Structures are given as C-alpha cells and as structure tokens.
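Quick one: structure for this chain?
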Amino acid sequence: MSQSAVGRWKSASPKPETVAAFARAFGRPVLEAFVAAGFMTEEEARLTEVPADLATVDSDLLLSEIRRRLMR
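Got it. Here's what it folds into:
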C-alpha cells in the first residue's frame, strides 16, 4: 500500500468495503488495511474469537493463549 493512498484514506474516510477491496487487489490482509485506514488498532486486529465451549478448543491453542496473556 502506498503512503499516498493511506494519506487519502485518513482525510477522506473511505468505506470499509473499498479498503477491503484495495487490500485484496494488492494481495494484502484486509485487517492490515483496516489498521492503515484507522478503522481499528493493531491490537484489535490481533484479537481472535474464542469458542464459547472451551472444551472444543485444541490444547495447543489454549496453552498458546495462556502464554500470550501471561507475557503481557
């Protein structure tokens, strides 16, 4: 993504679907584009959804999340 495109986003407030299309056209992650456009923070982009029933979560994923939280 060019800096000039990001600069235009900051002043023109593009629609989310435009930002998503731009990211896809350049083979970049949509969340990265949303961060660049100011729709969300980098921290928000790193959030993942956890299933309501933790019994269904893979043990490695669960341990990884526990480690991540302890390292804050």
